[in-house]
């Protein structure tokens, strides 16, 4: 999901408010932009899903739903800061809406 190339920078442009999607599950939606050099960028909408009892985090991009390996290295609870750490972004919490 995350590009490995050194010339790619990633920005998290927006993170939604927490939504309940099913009993015991919640989600955050994010808009993430991958910048390739100075003139090329690709914007993706991604969704992160977890459970209120600390279940693993899933990432959904398009129609693909994948578990995030070793998800606790970004924090023990899925929240906007977790999403920013996953993408290596330092945007302010004020950008979360």
**Average pLDDT taken over every residue:** 84
The structural domain count equals 1
CA radius of gyration is 13 Å
User: Which structural class is indicated by helix and strand composition?
Assistant: mainly beta
The percent of residues in helical segments reads under 10%
How would you sum up the global shape? elongated
Counting DSSP E segments of at least 2 residues, the number of strands comes to 6
Number of helical elements: 1
Q: Whole-Å distance between the termini?
A: 23 Å
- Contiguous low-pLDDT stretches (5 residues minimum) are 90-97
Helices and strands, in order, run as EEEEEEH
Q: Outline the biggest β-sheet.
A: 6 strands, antiparallel
Sheet-strand content, in percent, reads: over 45%
Describe the structure.
8% of the residues lie in helices and 45% in strands. The chain has 97 residues and is mainly beta. The protein has one domain. Strands 1, 2, 3, 4, 5 and 6 form a 6-stranded antiparallel sheet that branches. A hairpin with a 2-residue loop joins strand 2 (19-22) and strand 3. The protein starts with 7 loop residues before the first strand and ends in a 10-residue tail after the last helix. The relative contact order is 0.24.
Task: Please give a handful of descriptors for the protein shown.
97 residues, six-stranded antiparallel beta sheet, mainly beta, elongated
Structure in a nutshell:
The chain has 97 residues and is mainly beta.
């Amino acid at each position: 999901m995350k590009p490995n190339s050194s010339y790619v920078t990633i920005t998290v442009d927006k993170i939604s408010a927490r939504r309940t999607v099913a009993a015991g599950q919640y989600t955050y939606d994010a808009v993430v932009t991958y910048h390739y050099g100075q003139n090329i960028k690709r914007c993706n909408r991604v969704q992160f899903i977890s459970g209120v009892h600390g279940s693993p985090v899933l990432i959904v991009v398009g129609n693909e739903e994948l578990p995030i390996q070793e998800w606790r290295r970004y924090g023990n609870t899925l929240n906007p800061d977790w999403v920013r750490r996953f993408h290596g972004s330092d945007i302010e919490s004020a950008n979360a809406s």
